[in-house]
Amino acid sequence: MKFENNLQKNIQLFKNVLKSDDIIYYQFSAKQSQFCVIYVDSVTDKNEAGKLVIKAIQEQNITNLEDCQKKLQIPAVEKSLSVTDTITALLQGKTILLGAEKFCLTCDFYSYQMRAVAEPPTSTIVRGPREGFNESIKTNLSLVRRRIKTPDFIVKNFQVGKYSKTQISLCYLSSIAPESLVNDVIAKLSSINIDSVPDSSYISKLIIKRKTSLFKQIGNTEKPDIFSQKLLEGRVGILVDGSPIALTLPYMFVEDFQSSEDYFINNYRANMVRAIRVISLIIAVLLPAIFVSAQLFHLQVIPLNFLLTIVSSIKGIPLSPSFEMFFTLLIFEILNEASVRMPKYVGMALSIVGALVLGDTAVKAGIVSTPTIMIMALSGICLYTAPEVVDSMSVLRLVFLIIAGTLGGYGVIMLATYIIIYLCSLDNFGVPFLAPYAPFISNDLKDSLYMDFVPNMKKRPKVLGSDNKTRMGAKNNEKTN
Amino acid sequence: MKKQIKTGQICAIFIALLPLTKVVCAPSYFAKNCGEKLWQPLIILLLLDLLLLLTCYFIYKKHDNKSFYEILISVYGKPFANGIFILYAIFFFAKTVVPLFEQKIFIENTFYETLPQAPVFYPALIIIFYLALKGLKTFGRTCQIASFITAIGFLLIIFLGIPSADYESLLPLFAFSNKSAPICALTALTYFNDAICLLFFLGSFKAEKKSEFKIFLSYLIPFLCVILFYVTFYGIFDYVALSRKVAISEVGIFSVALINVGRFDHIALFLLALSSIIAVSLPITLSTHCLVQIFGENNRLTISLVLTLMLFGVCVTLSAKYLMVFEFISKYFAPLFVLCGYLLPLLGLGGSNNELQTG
User: Fold this and answer.
1) pLDDT in tens, A406-445
2) Do A440 and B146 make contact, defined as CB atoms within 8 angstroms?
3) Cβ of B266 and A300 within 8 Å?
4) Please, which of A81, A112, A279, B5 could form a disulfide with B140 given CB 3.0 to 4.6 Å?
5) What is the pTM of this model?
């Protein structure tokens, strides 16, 4: 389809394709010439378009599009010869100016309502920057640009989604990120063929190697400060229009135990907190399974006094230890799911019903024992010390529980061994998932489960394979940016 | 050459796995045959293994990190190399049987005293299969995690045992009159000769700075810990040591700490059980590695599956007859263990660099 020297025919070209009611065709005349402005009603700043295009054309008696482009102060004005490209631009929020000529002009009056930059609810901190990404990719890029002011910061845009035409921005630092990694990600993003991209999580699911894996393989963050730091370590980042969650890759398991606040608080406290996260996660996943297997198969492991307490509390309980724990876990997951879904104003009622009525009454009624409730509560709380892994670990907890109830402690050991082997075999974009522990990379231990003092972290993570290795105190002849 | 394994991973393999196959039933066997001089065959085996390590390193240096298979092909031809590697596949498979049975005994006797839990052990074979399937790279990485676990578990058990041990029962220390030491060492080869692994890592790793020193130490230190474990075991049980079948779970049992707070040595035992699964996987992984060299990487799945199924068959039919199997293997397989463990590696010393480059 090509434009012609006839305005009505040109308008018809659009009308043949765009049949939606929110596509506005506004025809107006200036001197003897006729023009038409086409825009999508919901995403265009009509006041600005009226003032800078329609009114300006009429006031300056412009008669053709060439003069429009030369004389008027229209933002991001471009000449377009292809009708198809123009329609795509229109649907992305551009405003089209048509005349009786063999081309048209596209200009940018894109405007829509968006959420303000605010602290992300999923990663609140006491110390450190509180800005969070929102659903606008332009705002998100501006937040990153504010933190990285170098020509090496590269943004490559992609359009993904047959129908959604979602903008995706691949961000990296050309002097730090390995070229092979960038090329690999570009190839994967280019190969995506899908109807729409509602959220960045779709992208992460589409570009990972092991699509059925239980474990997260791409990092995500809602915070521009974390995103920028990841880029400066040698990772690449992906921003998706319409999603406040940015993706970072390659991703390693230790990242789940790191928080941005760790770098802003006292180092000793940061190390203590990281250790607590690791211990909590082990407790969260294994404690219910260990308790059940100890009760069923390994009573000798339990100290005598504790054993007597358990015996007195499980007296008269009709359920087997494994079923009792499974039942309590099920109740916990139901309460958890309900608390997320239900309106906030009934949250208090849920707490009372869940914690007091259900928990207390179940114990008094002799359906479940007090130690079981205690173990499950501890496990449930501990799981949320590493919120990024809640999805996978809650599933694992259930699997461990089932195995513990059937095979006992050795079953738990076998499953743990299998998981360790599986994780050791995982590579994300060429980076071992369990690095810097397997393979062991001594340089990268400075920011792993243990955290060294920030002034000592002079090198970038070796495992990421950046040629630009030094990030602090580099000599002049070293490659730094 | 595709690098699969690093020096640190080889060290981790030795640290993580070396002690585990030797501390279940072997200590009572040594106590039965050598009494208070049970450390003497261990020293013989240690010296032999250190010599073997040096031989492997010399082969590595001489042939510029060619794999053992490539060296054999270059020097002796492909049919000969294939024959040797089939022999090694059998050797590694045979080396798995006794330690695997002992793991089963360890698990069932230690963790499941009251209930017959035979099926509990068999899922471990799935892990053995999985590791064999994944190959050396994953094995090396897994051992880096397992080395911490083994170190914690093994040292905890030894430290629990030391206060209860009476080392005077080992005296006189330097009375070299016991002629049974070399025979005991020979018949216990199924547990030892781990240094042979290094021969099969050739071609898959590149030596780093001081790697020979690191590998040497990573072999020596766990082995010395094993010797300490044996003497502690004998120090605790003295002449009744030969009747204590599962040494690892009995060394710490008399610790005062356990009496006060409960059997927390089980935490260490569970940790060691985790590493033990990986330890018994090593020979099967190497057996798979040998056959993969012959039949190609595409057949790795089939090879590892067949080997695991064979192991499962052996385990189901013969694990109840542990003593008979042990006697059979230690008696009839000893020549194979000597041949494959200490003599065939010398083949790698043949040929020269020029031959390899043109071969």
Assistant:
1) 888 899 999 999 999 999 999 888 899 998 998 888 888 8
2) no
3) yes
4) B5
5) 0.88
